[in-house]
């Protein structure tokens, strides 16, 4: 339970010293060109810090030190329990600095402080702890083979892993990648989004304090350029990316053009939330539908951005969703009572506004649709609900903002067809009082995660794999399956005679 008040957080924010340097080879560094970019808070448009704009020389330096750490086995060669101890120390340090990191994340992204203290930072800590604990529990195989042979299958770290991540959950999305990658012995280069670089830089310093050997964990802030350079680099063995489908495709091309590094992609979504007429609890479903699109300002890859409602209950259900949306009144993100903060930056704000305009042309605006708190210099939007046809632009394209498209359907087949008629396949949900129907629909939904009579549950459980079908990506974050991405399988065959 966080006891700090709005005024406490504002005072802390005003006096905070913010680090903007990259972290390479165990030390903070300016970009070799000395170039920086301004890190602007979407809360009020204030410049928080100038951050190193890493370029080719910095990426080369990060790759070289990461490679050296891997070749010398300074990390991969440690006993598993010693690697575990370092990761657990790091997790403990991040927990100790929870308020500082939550404040950085809120200032940088506009996320409510109540969320960054209760979700973003603790979930990242839990993720690191979970993979640390797994280090000495996951072994290889001794496989059945001819009698004169001993067959071993072992997992080895892939080498140098680049993690390129987005801005919506900067610390957590990064942790989903670096925690399993480091646990199995890789060196990591983290490239945070230019919209949210601050927590990455800070946790690198804490990693150093926790005892990682130099070069094992590096951070190279900047925009697309360092990301592209990592994707093209011959010294990178694997690139794990979370972000847009467009960038994911570009990264895959870079890998194909260079060294065929392994490419793992967690991409966009346009997730359907289907409410059948026998939904067991319409009030709970309406609240869940609102949370699914308005939590984190809709900047969630699994946002339930398409609400598919049966014609018989549509009008009553929309009224309940509109009522539930009132819980998301935009306010100052440092106020612990606020549940809806600012949109991450002007570019994203204008992008969402353009979709709202498209929604006005193609559908019926039910509620919201306007900017608010403009006098603050920040980027705030009302929670917005449209009723549209399935082929409307806002029902097809990922908006990544607080805009819900409600779509009517006639029967279960119709609902499944509309739900699956998308290039994405990240998540989906179905609400029904009949478990047979619900399971049958769940099976037919082409998505990596499906909820029955809920939305978003299990998000905090590390045991569920997370990822997409179709153009929502490949591979899975979270769970032991994530180790598949950061290890090579080796068969060792011993001839006894
Ligand atoms: P983005 O693709 O614009 O950027 C993601 C990262 O890639 C950033 O660090 C960016 O600097 C970098 N980048 C940009 N161009 C690059 C290039 N050509 N080569 C290499 N790197 C490049 O995405 P975003 O706007 O930061 O994030 C929003 C997107 O992320 C949404 O589409 C959302 O659905 C997706 N997302 C997916 C998941 C998931 O797990 N599936 C989670 C969160 C966000």
Automatic annotation (TrEMBL):
InterPro entries in alphabetical order: Ald_DH/histidinol_DH, Ald_DH_C, Ald_DH_CS_CYS, Ald_DH_CS_GLU, Ald_DH_N, Aldehyde_DH_dom
Enzyme active site: 266
Sequence ranges assigned to domain Aldehyde dehydrogenase in this UniProt record: 32-491
Pfam family, one: Aldedh
SUPFAM superfamilies cross-referenced by the UniProt entry: ALDH-like
Alphabetic keyword roster: Oxidoreductase
Source organism superkingdom: Bacteria
Family, similarity comment: Belongs to the aldehyde dehydrogenase family.
Name under which the protein is recorded: Aldehyde dehydrogenase
Naturally occurring in which organism (per UniProt): Paraburkholderia ginsengiterrae
């Amino acid at each position: 339970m966080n006891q700090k008040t709005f005024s406490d957080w504002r005072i802390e924010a005003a006096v905070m010293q913010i680090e903007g340097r990259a972290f390479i080879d165990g030390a903070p560094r300016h970009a070799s060109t000395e170039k920086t970019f301004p890190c602007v808070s979407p809360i009020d448009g204030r410049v928080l810090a100038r951050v190193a704009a890493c370029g080719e020389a910095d990426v080369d330096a990060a790759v070289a030190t990461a490679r050296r750490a891997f070749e010398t086995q300074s990390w991969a060669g440690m006993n598993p329990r010693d690697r575990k101890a370092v990761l657990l120390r790091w997790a403990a340090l991040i927990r100790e600095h929870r308020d500082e990191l939550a404040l950085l994340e809120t200032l940088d992204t506009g996320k409510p402080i109540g969320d960054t203290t209760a979700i973003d930072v603790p979930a990242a800590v839990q993720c690191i702890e979970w993979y640390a604990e797994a280090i000495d529990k996951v072994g290889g195989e001794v496989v059945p083979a001819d009698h004169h042979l001993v067959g071993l299958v072992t997992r080895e770290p892939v080498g140098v892993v680049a993690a390129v991540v987005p801005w919506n959950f900067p610390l957590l999305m990064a942790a989903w990648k670096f925690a399993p990658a480091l646990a199995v012995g890789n060196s990591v280069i983290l490239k945070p989004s230019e919209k949210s670089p601050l927590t990455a830089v800070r946790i690198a310093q804490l990693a150093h304090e926790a005892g990682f050997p130099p070069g094992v964990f590096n951070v190279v802030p900047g925009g697309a350029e360092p990301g592209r350079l990592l994707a093209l680099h011959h010294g990178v063995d694997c690139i794990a990316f979370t972000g847009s489908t467009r960038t994911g495709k570009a990264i895959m091309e870079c890998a194909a053009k260079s060294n065929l590094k392994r490419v793992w992609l967690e991409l966009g979504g346009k997730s359907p939330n289907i409410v059948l007429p026998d939904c067991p609890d319409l009030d709970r479903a309406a609240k869940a539908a609102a949370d699914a699109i308005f939590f984190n300002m809709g900047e969630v890859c699994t946002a339930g951005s398409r609400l598919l409602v049966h014609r018989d209950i549509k009008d009553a259900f929309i009224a309940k969703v509109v009522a539930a949306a009132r819980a998301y009144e935009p306010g100052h993100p440092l106020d612990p009572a606020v549940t809806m903060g600012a949109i991450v930056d002007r570019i994203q704000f204008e992008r969402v506004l353009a979709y709202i305009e498209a929604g006005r042309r193609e559908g019926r605006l039910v509620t919201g649709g306007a900017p608010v708190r403009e006098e603050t210099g920040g980027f705030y939007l009302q929670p917005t609900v449209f009723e549209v046809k399935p082929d409307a632009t806002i029902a097809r394209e990922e908006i990544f903002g607080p805009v819900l498209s409600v779509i009517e359907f006639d029967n279960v087949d119709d609902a499944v067809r509309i739900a699956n008629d998308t290039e994405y396949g990240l998540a989906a949900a179905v609400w029904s009082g009949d478990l047979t129907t619900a399971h049958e629909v769940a099976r037919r939904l082409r998505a990596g995660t499906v909820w029955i009579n809920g939305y978003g549950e299990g998000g905090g459980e590390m045991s569920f794999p997370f990822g997409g079908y179709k153009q929502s990506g490949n591979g899975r974050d979270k769970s032991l399956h994530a180790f598949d991405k950061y290890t090579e399988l080796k068969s060792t065959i011993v001839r006894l005679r």
